[in-house]
């Protein structure tokens, strides 16, 4: 009986010691160990490369030439005017042979008569232009002589004569400049639909024409 009791007591004490050791070593914080980190030294500064000023100037000139070339290319494309739908003739009507009417053939006498009429009209318009120019010169000369004489007579009247005449072009306007609002007006509701047409520049599909306009892609 005694050996069994002593054995049980020893076993109990051994279990208690083992349990205490487990509780003592079980924790959630980091262990306070000494650690060494590698030495990190800075890299020596690299020596700056000296760039030739001539090379920088050539690069700037190339960039400026490239921009000028792009601007010229855009100007060539932007010269195309926007089409007016009211003035455009449908292609179907242009291809319709029934709508094409032959031009009347004129005789030699009619052609000579037209040439003589054009010459007479040109001579008449030239004489009319010369007469108008001479009349304007006479009027301006007379006005200058009158102003010179007026300046010698009275300086105040001369200064007054140089002022613009407001009654030379009479203009009168009466009435409100804006329409007054209407009382109790029920404004109609609705959505605004923008129907403005957007036109894109026409780029030719022919590679030669694209190269001529500067639109081809460089390899």
TrEMBL record:
The parts of the chain that form a coiled coil are 133-160
One GO term describing the cellular component: mitochondrial large ribosomal subunit
Q: Mind listing the UniProt keywords for this protein, alphabetically?
A: Coiled coil, Mitochondrion, Ribonucleoprotein, Ribosomal protein, Transit peptide
What species is this protein from?
Answer: Nephila pilipes
This one is known as: Large ribosomal subunit protein mL40
Family the entry assigns: Belongs to the mitochondrion-specific ribosomal protein mL40 family.
Q: What is its main location?
A: mitochondrion
Classify the source by domain of life: Eukaryota
Q: Where is the protein found, in the record's own terms?
A: Mitochondrion
């Amino acid at each position: 009986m005694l050996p069994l009791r002593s054995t049980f007591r020893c076993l109990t004490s051994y279990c208690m010691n083992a349990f205490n050791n487990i509780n003592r070593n079980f924790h959630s914080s980091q262990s306070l160990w000494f650690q060494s980190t590698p030495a990190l030294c800075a890299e020596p500064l690299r020596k700056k490369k000296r760039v030739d000023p001539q090379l920088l100037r050539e690069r700037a000139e190339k960039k400026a030439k490239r921009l000028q070339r792009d601007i010229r290319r855009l100007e060539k494309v932007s010269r195309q005017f926007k089409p007016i739908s009211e003035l455009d003739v449908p292609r179907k009507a242009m291809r319709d042979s029934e709508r094409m009417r032959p031009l009347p053939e004129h005789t030699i006498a009619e052609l000579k008569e037209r040439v003589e009429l054009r010459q007479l009209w040109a001579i008449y318009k030239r004489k009319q232009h010369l007469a108008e120019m001479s009349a304007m010169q006479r009027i301006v000369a007379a006005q200058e002589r009158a102003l010179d004489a007026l300046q010698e007579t009275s300086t105040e009247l001369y200064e007054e004569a140089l002022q613009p005449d407001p009654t030379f072009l009479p203009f009168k306007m009466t009435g409100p400049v804006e329409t007054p609002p209407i009382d109790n007006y029920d404004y109609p509701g609705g959505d605004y639909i923008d129907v403005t047409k957007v036109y894109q520049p026409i780029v030719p599909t022919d590679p030669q024409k694209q190269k001529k306009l500067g639109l081809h892609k460089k390899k």
